[in-house]
UniProtKB/TrEMBL annotation:
Coiled coil: none
Annotated localization: Nucleus
All residue ranges annotated as the Enhancer of polycomb-like N-terminal domain in the record: 8-97
Organism expressing this protein natively: Asarcornis scutulata
Main location: nucleus
Annotated InterPro entries: Enhancer_polycomb, Enhancer_polycomb-like_N
Name assigned to this protein: Enhancer of polycomb homolog
Length: 221
């Protein structure tokens, strides 16, 4: 950002664009051989574009992804030991999730990983070396969130901030009048239902009394 600040300051001072005060732009390079080695041109359209394997969906994929340095290490390690890229990712993922600010020891790594001791030692030493060279607290990138003590208020890289002020929304009086009319109509309908039930109750009582009187008349006759 200091290039941008220098360019703005120079424009404010001199009033014109200076040749030496510019924002640097990285140059684009093209390497056809390297591109073709990664993306071969022998592509054939498959019969199905979406493939579903229901039995492999339950397997949880590790959050750690290999980079170019990891691929070189895994290829070298393959010559001496039996290891796959997915297995390496799972091992690094368990080591990262088992560690906090301080990395786990070799003995703790053996408890976390269910592999051969020699393989664990090789991966552990590589992981420790890479973790020391890493600037962040973990090799797995994570979204930086707001701290509860409020110490990260001025940090521009914090995501998902909580609102400090409550949003003031416009009140629509038309909606309030419509809801009031609906409540009045609901109350009117409920009152009518109660009145109808009371009348039905009186009718049934009258029917029962009429039945008793009819029985008495028949018995007296």
């Amino acid at each position: 950002e200091h290039h941008l600040q220098r360019a703005i300051s120079a424009q404010q001072v001199y009033g014109e664009k200076r040749d030496n005060m510019v924002i640097p732009v990285p140059e684009a390079e093209s390497n056809i051989a390297y591109y073709e080695s990664i993306y071969p041109g022998e592509f054939k359209m498959p019969k199905q574009l979406i493939h579903i394997q229901p039995f492999s969906l339950d397997a949880e994929q590790p959050d750690y992804d290999l980079d170019s340095e990891d691929e070189i290490f895994v290829n070298k390690l393959k010559k001496r030991m039996d290891i796959s890229p997915l297995q390496f990712e799972e091992m690094i993922d368990r080591l990262e999730k088992g560690s906090g600010q301080q990395p786990v020891s070799l003995q703790e790594a053996k408890l976390l990983l269910k592999e051969d001791d020699e393989l664990i030692r090789e991966v552990y030493e590589y992981w420790i070396k890479k973790r020391k060279n890493c600037r962040g607290p973990s090799l797995i990138p994570a979204v930086k969130q707001e701290k509860r003590d409020g110490s990260s208020t001025n940090d521009p890289y914090v995501a998902f901030r909580r609102r400090t002020e409550k949003m003031q929304t416009r009140k629509n009086r038309k909606n309030d009048e419509a809801s009031y009319e609906k409540m009045l109509k609901l109350r009117r309908d409920l009152s009518r239902a109660v009145t109808i039930l009371e009348m039905i109750k009186r009718r049934e009582k009258s029917k029962r009394e009429l039945l008793h009187l009819t029985l008495e008349i028949i018995e007296k006759r």
